[in-house]
Specification:
- The chain is built from 17 helices and 12 strands.
- The chain has 542 residues and is of the alpha/beta class.
- The protein folds into 2 domains: 4-228 and 508-524, no CATH class; 235-499, Nitrilase/N-carbamoyl-D-aminoacid amidohydrolase (4-Layer Sandwich), CATH 3.60.110.10.
- The strands form 2 sheets. Strands 5-4-3-2-1-12 form a 6-stranded mixed beta sheet. Strands 6-7-8-9-10-11 form a 6-stranded mixed beta sheet, covered by helices on one side.
- A hairpin with a 2-residue loop joins strand 3 and strand 4 (331-343).
């Protein structure tokens, strides 16, 4: 049994890792170095575990601390959406922690198994890093988060995501932390100071080499991308953010018709303001900005609203992408509508249906769904999921054609949706989101960064528009511009730079997670029995 002092030291070490990761998660240049050493205290605790339950207990503590430090704002979002007390929302977040970050348990168990068998430092580092990445791929992570997102603070280092995605960057960060742990152990081993320093040089060189390689690759890639983006813009887009949220409450207060009237008036006025300042190729409104079905109206008032939006597009002569609902065979979908002018007074439309639905609030699994549950939680969602990624062609002036890939809110956490769409020919990612349920600016910032990694991985620019912020244009390097902040009401004309070719991620991105899990599992297998060797001894007297 561990002595209480050992327990106290372990708790302090795990808290130190959580705090360091919290700093790294600020995603600012000054904090990027923390990502290369933040896990060192936790790694030492995992490796010191004497029993499986000790390893699991350490993983649980780190998991809970990590969620509270990085995603503490989500408790407020739970309370805002479900209207439960703040204390209950915080308890729910703690209970959910193992579901939100299950990779810590797999990681700790892998290291325990390897160290118990006497595996070497290199094998332990490689195997545990691989199963960490594989576990993140295999688990339905709610936020789509990974350690590599902290590298967003370095414009150079984040560019490596175009090779193996954000998971690939997480893998090398884990290796760097293991090398830093080896250097720390070397500096503490033995009485001779010079010998300790020499022993630490090799692992420190690994840390420096990883950081240098990431930065060097980023410098080269950014120079290439800037050269490719030096030509004319891909398109000019009007981003429209109305800063209207909680449509349900608006409908309860004023009625469904008046609530829709207020929303449409706001967005039509802001769009007209943008058109007065120039002639964009595309106007973009956020997710579910039109809180009813489009094209299949539920009432005569709904049909009138449909005609009003279509008339605006026909009159302005500019395509519009906006969030609405879609319906088929009694099922309802969260949808992005592309409405294009077809001639005087006419407009045609195409539809993309959201694929990744947020658990519970948008969709309840069939095995969990019941009348009793819905009676207890009336806010549970009823939407159906779309069939997959889509590429929608948009006709622009002078015979140009733009191929856009719509993504709706939670779709942006899935790298495969963007990757498949770009492989299908998409020139531009168009992300519509409703971030109003976030309690403060931390949630929108995280969502923006997660979306930005889709542009880095695919090297395609992105137009991201939300109802309450943050809206922005994201270029192929992940840099955001023409930003409309949280709770700003604005319409902004922005030139969208072109993309940057076909990065390796487009080819290998879908295999990174499963390959990491398989390779990690192979390295976890026990080594084969040692072979007996024949040793010859000279006879006495010879």
């Amino acid at each position: 049994m561990l002595h209480w002092r050992d327990l106290a030291r372990s708790a302090v070490a795990l808290a130190a890792t959580a705090a360091a990761l919290g700093v790294f998660a600020r995603m600012q240049p000054v904090w990027v170095p923390f990502g290369f050493v933040a896990l060192v205290p936790a790694l030492a605790v995992f490796d010191a575990a004497r029993r499986v339950r000790d390893a699991l207990a350490a993983a649980l503590v780190l998991c809970v601390l990590f969620v509270l430090v990085i995603f503490g704002w989500f408790a407020g979002a739970i309370g805002t959406y479900s209207e439960i007390p703040a204390g209950a929302a915080l308890v729910a977040l703690v209970v959910l922690a193992p579901v939100l970050e299950p990779q810590f348990f797999v990681f700790a168990l892998a290291r325990f198994a390897l160290r118990r068998r006497g595996a070497g430092v290199v094998r332990t580092a490689l195997a545990s890093a691989l199963v960490y990445v594989g576990a993140e791929w295999a688990s339905p992570k709610l936020f789509g988060d990974t350690l590599a997102h902290g590298l967003f603070g370095s414009a150079w280092m984040r560019q490596g995501a175009d090779l193996a995605g954000a998971p690939g960057l997480t893998f090398v960060l884990l290796l760097a932390n293991d090398a830093a742990l080896a250097a720390w152990r070397a500096l503490r081993a033995g009485p001779e100071r010079v010998a300790r320093a020499r022993a630490a040089l090799a692992p420190l060189a690994v840390v420096a080499g990883i950081a240098g390689a990431l930065a060097g690759y980023g410098v080269v890639r950014m120079a290439q991308l800037r050269a490719e983006a030096s030509g004319p813009p891909l398109a000019t887009v009007a981003l429209v953010q109305g800063d209207i949220s909680r449509y349900g409450r608006l409908a309860q207060r004023f009625g469904t018709f008046e609530a829709t009237r207020v929303i449409l008036d706001t967005y039509l006025a802001l769009s007209s303001e943008a058109l007065a300042g120039g002639h964009p190729d595309l106007v973009v409104w956020p997710e579910t900005v039109y809180p009813t079905t489009f094209g299949t109206p539920k009432s005569e008032a709904g049909a009138a609203f449909d005609r009003e939006i279509a008339a605006f597009v026909a009159r302005a002569g500019v395509p519009l992408v906006f969030g609405a609902y879609d319906t088929e065979d009694g099922r309802e979908f969260n949808a992005a509508i592309l409405l294009e002018p077809e001639g005087p007074g006419r407009a045609g439309f195409d539809v993309y249906r959201k694929v990744r639905l947020f658990p519970l609030t948008e969709r309840v699994p069939a095995w969990l769904d019941s009348a009793t549950l819905r009676g207890l939680l009336p806010w549970l969602g009823t939407w159906s999921a779309g069939s997959g990624a889509a590429v929608l062609p948009v006709d622009l002036p002078a015979g140009r054609r733009l191929r856009i890939a719509p993504l709706i809110c939670y779709d942006a956490v899935d790298p495969d949706l963007a990757r498949v769409a770009v492989r299908g020919g998409a020139d531009l990612l168009v992300t519509l989101s409703n971030d109003s349920w976030f309690a403060d600016a931390e949630g929108p910032r995280l969502h923006l960064v997660t979306s930005a990694f889709r542009s880095i991985e695919t090297r395609r620019p992105q137009v991201r528009v939300t109802n309450t912020g943050i809206s922005a244009v994201i270029d192929a390097t992940g840099e955001a511009s023409d930003t409309i902040g949280v709770h700003e009401r604005a319409a902004r004309l922005a030139a969208v730079p072109p993309g940057g070719g076909a990065p390796l991620f487009l080819t290998v991105g879908g295999a990174v997670g499963p390959a990491a899990l398989l390779a990690g599992a192979v390295l976890l297998l026990p080594a084969g029995p040692r072979r007996a060797t024949l040793r010859l001894r000279p006879r006495a007297g010879r």
